[in-house]
Design brief:
Layout: E1 7-14, E2 19-25, E3 31-37, H1 38-54, H2 61-66, H3 71-79, H4 88-103, H5 110-123, H6 134-152, E4 159-165
Antiparallel strand pairs: 1-2, 1-4, 2-3
Helix pairs in contact: 1-4, 1-6, 5-6
Length: about 170
């Protein structure tokens, strides 16, 4: 599968019902820490983790953070148009995370979800990534439920600690 990509330690520290800290510790020892509003960001970041882990991605949100890209720069990169394909993986993930984070809040038929999203992407002229299928949706939703349960059981002042290895085998 190519060169090993380093593991990234990701911590979601619960400060209050409204705030949390997201911290990254890279293998080179560098760290990044940002305090965030929980209601609008936590679920989105957990969905990213589930999607990128289950799809074994290297070049989306967490893979880029592991390689040293600053958290603040990722929103800009994801929004930019890159005709050279250099940010294709990040672009694909953003198109899947939004609908999946909404779908995960209710009962989802994976086949119907995949069909609807593929149709939507095709209607907009966008290709669907090869890894996006029913099995992926089942695995990502399972991972997300597990992460949500772990977050809900994390006491205030403590952290949910995750390890992300870009491109890791399941």
């Amino acid at each position: 599968m190519g060169a090993a990509v380093p593991t990234l330690l990701v911590r979601f520290r619960r400060l209050s019902p409204e705030r949390h800290v997201l911290e990254f510790v890279r293998v080179d020892g560098s760290r990044e820490r940002v305090e965030l509003e929980t209601r609008s960001t936590l679920w989105h970041d957990l969905v990213h983790f589930a999607v990128e882990s289950e799809a074994r991605l290297r070049d989306a949100f967490y893979g880029r953070i592991a390689r040293g890209v600053a958290y603040a720069a990722l929103g800009r990169i994801a929004a930019e148009r890159h005709d050279d394909g250099s940010h294709l993986e990040l672009w694909h993930v953003e198109r899947i995370v939004g609908p999946l984070q909404t779908a995960a809040k209710r009962t989802v038929d994976p086949a119907a979800f995949v069909g609807a999203l593929r149709s939507h992407l095709a209607a907009t002229g966008a290709a669907c990534p090869s890894w996006f299928d029913e099995g992926f949706v089942v695995r990502a939703l399972w991972r997300l439920r597990e992460l949500d349960g772990r977050w809900r059981s994390t006491p205030f002042g403590e952290a949910l600690e995750l390890r992300f290895t870009a491109g890791a085998e399941r």
